[in-house]
Structures are given as C-alpha cells and as structure tokens.
Amino acid sequence: MIVDSAVSELRAVLGPRCVDASERLERYEVLERGPRGRTGLVLLPQTEAEVGEILKICNRHAMPLVISSGRTGLVEAQRPLGEAVLSLEKLNRPIEFTLADGRRYTWSENIVVSAAGDALLAWWESLKRPDPRGARLTVQGGVAVDAVNDWLRPLGLMFPMEMGSSSSASVGACAANASAGSNAVCYGTGAHMTEAAWGWWGNGEAAGPCSASPWQPSPERFAINSLHIEPGWGLLGSQGAFGLITRLTLRTYAIPAQREAALIPVADMKQSMRVLKAARKRFGDRVEEFEFISSSAMDLVRELQGEAFRLPFSQAVDSPLYLLLQVKSDDADEDLASSLYDFLAGDLNLPDEHIGYAPLPALKKIRHSITEASNARMRALGGGRLSFDTATPLTGFGEYLDGLRAALAERAAGTELIAFGHAGVGGAHLHVIGTKEHPIAPRSAELTGLVIDVTLQHGGSFSAEHGIGSKWADEYLRRSPREELDTVRGLKREHDPLNILNPRSFGFDRLLAS
C-alpha cells in the first residue's frame, strides 16, 4: 500500500521525519491492546502545513494512512496493516492563551515545550495576576492532556479530562473521539470542552473552525455514543474518519477551591441511580465525579495492592457495588466536608460505617488501578479477556448492568465480569475474563454477540467513548440503522472520497463499496 513515488515526494517535504528504518517503526506497530500491526513508513510532520501537504500527496497517489498520536486508543484504529502511519506526536506545542478580556499571550514557534508553562506564568504575573476565569488555550492537536494541565495549573486553571492515560493521550484525539473520562458528568466530553477545532479533511482541504453542541446531560438520551456521528460537529467526535485535528482552542475551567469525595456502598445499580438523583438535587452541577466500581473489580484491586490496600470504612463492608462521589466548591470558606456528610448521613440515611471518607488521591488510586488489576487477573487465569466500552441512557442504566450480569451467569459459565465506569453518564467499562478451563478465544464471537445484544436490548450503545476503529467495524456495519450508515458514507465521500484516512475504521473499505 506504500507507493514509492509518493514516498519520494513525502521525503522532499519531511526530510528525515519520513521514517522507514525498521528499528524505528516498531513502536508504531505495537499497540496498547490488540494484535501487532505492520508498516513500512512513518510520517512525522511538525507543522499544520506539513500535514496538509502530506494529505495532498497521498491523495495524488491514492496512498492510505493510519493516524497515530498518543497511541492510547483501544479500538485498533491506529493499527497499520501495510498502510503508512501519520503521527501527530510532534504537533505538541502551545500556540496562544487568551484571557476573557481579550489580552493574550502568544508563544514563540521555537518555544521549548518544557518551558512553556514558566513563560505563561511570567506573562500572567507581569499583568498583576488578572482573573483567569473564562480563558481559552489554543494548542496543536498532539499536545498531551497532562502537558496542558501543567501549563494551566499555576494560573489556577485546568482542562478537566481525567483518565488513566492522560500522560500520553492527546487533546486532539480526546476531542476527535469525544472522550468522556471520570469528570464527564460535570464537564462533558473532550468535544464539549473544545471551543473550536481546525485541521484537514482527508482530501487535503482545510477544515474548521468546527464546534460541538453545548453539554446538556439528559437521563433520557445518550451522553456518550461513538455509534452516532454528528455531521454538524465536523472534525469533533468524528474519530478521525473524515479528517484530522491539528489545532484546537480549549475551554479552561477554574480549579475548584475545594473538593470532597467519599466511597459509598450500594446494593445495585438502581440504587446508584437514586443516589445520583439525590446528589444532583443537593449539589446541582457541583457533582464533579460519579463513578461505580463492582465488587469483583474492587476484589481485583485488593489482590493487586496486597497489604497496602485499604477501604475507607470504619469496619469491614462487603457490598455488590461502590460509588465514588466527588463534589466541588468554588468557595474556600464553605464547609464542604460537612455538606457532603449531611448529604450522606441525612439525605441518604447512611450509617457512619458506610461512609467511606478518605483523601481524594487514595480514592482515585483505587479507581485508576482497576485496569492494571484486571490485566494481572487475566494473566493469572490464562484464559484471555474481552473488553467493552458501553453506554445506556441513565433511565435504564441500573437495569442494564443487572441484566448483563444475569445473562453472562446463565450463558457464559466460567467467566468473570469486571464492571466499572462513569455511572453519572451511563458509561460502563466491562471486562469478561476467561480461565484455562473456559478460555475466551473459542467463544469470542458468541460472548461478543451476547454483550452487544443485551446492551442494545436496553437501548444502549456497544461503543461509548472509545470509538469504532477496526475492532468494532463488523458489528457497526451489521447493527447500525441504514440511515446512520448512509450519513457516514456520505460524509466520507464528501471529505475523503479516496478513503485515505483510517481506511478500515468503521468498515469504510466495505461501506464505500456497497
């Protein structure tokens, strides 16, 4: 699939950043999850103009590309199967910071990225530390989430995308995938946190500015759903299917003056939804996080951490589910801890021994250790694993997980279900783990169909925030309504008619031929 005549033109544009040395290609072939890919060429542009030139050359020669950035995706969209890899990792610098009153700081194009935060802080202090609330930050698309927060934190600001891979995941990919993260219940997805995005369509034409609809959570409709593309959002939420983001302006948010959190044992997901309703009634949009952890997930974290593991309860508590509720306040003088306790002990009528107070980092460590613990369990049992990222409307979320657990118990003997995720927006991460006696591989198709069937029966989506990629392409083509397929096919033919970008994602290699 790599065209020699195209490589010659690309080398003229990129020089040594047109990479074909085998020892440098391996890191683009090995993914965080999924089978190894293969490529003979990696392209490393460091300006937006270079990205545009690459796309024009590849269109002239009909040479397909797979997009790569932080390589943290879980649906194999960045896995090459002979295609060249277009990596945005060098598009990693800040561009401009703009205060609400219009005053702005523009970084030099030659800024050393590690010095960007100090330069911004010095400028802000030279202005006598004006109110930073409502500021906007424009960056290149390959900037990591953690890097953005490192630059913003000294000004009391944040980009509130919280997930386990934030040290590598790029803000451009989070916006393109409409990634949710733990704080989605409060701030929305990466697309909602983006004021505007620019880049290139797959055909080499400039794209943008693109923007998403405002974040408006609703218990009756999806908060996160990768199976549906919003045509009006352009590059945002489109998963790199039609174009790619090279620059974006991010909304920033004030770091709360206070945060308090607690771990709450509950009997089932129906009760969890009642807790969420009560928390919203008491705290409104100050509910910053509402996560759930199944007892099986908690047991794995306990096993992983050994003697260091502690549940924050005054006495032993054994519960089918645990909730991580986090609330915030912009008032440094508010007694937020007392407000949270009054809610838990008064509104919810919980006994003190069921109120799991602990320092926030300790609770977050439990939540963010689940995947690592699941990996260890999978290796120990030796039977493989299937991973799913689903979502359902909040009105049916409680019934959904109970129904899925019952279906697996009845039809998938010998498997373990590990469930955790974003209860505040109906998002669930599901790991189905097999054993040596009951391995996953021989029944992979059956188990995948079972999970997806139950999800759809409850009005859900079998791909919430991680996207379609090539992993879910077959199921996407088989199960999507015809009008959705027609919309996506039309957008692809309009913006990337030669199927240059991510040609196997969404099953475009077949969808465009049908």
Automatic annotation (TrEMBL):
Q: Hydrolase among the record's keywords?
A: no
What keywords were assigned to this record?
Answer: FAD, Flavoprotein, Oxidoreductase
For biological process, the GO terms are:
respiratory electron transport chain
Domain FAD-binding PCMH-type positions: 35-255
Kindly list the cofactors needed: FAD
Which PANTHER family does the UniProt record give? D-2-HYDROXYGLUTARATE DEHYDROGENASE, MITOCHONDRIAL (PTHR43716:SF1)
* KW 4Fe-4S (keyword) present: no
> What's the protein called, per UniProt?
FAD-binding PCMH-type domain-containing protein
Name any one GO molecular function: FAD binding
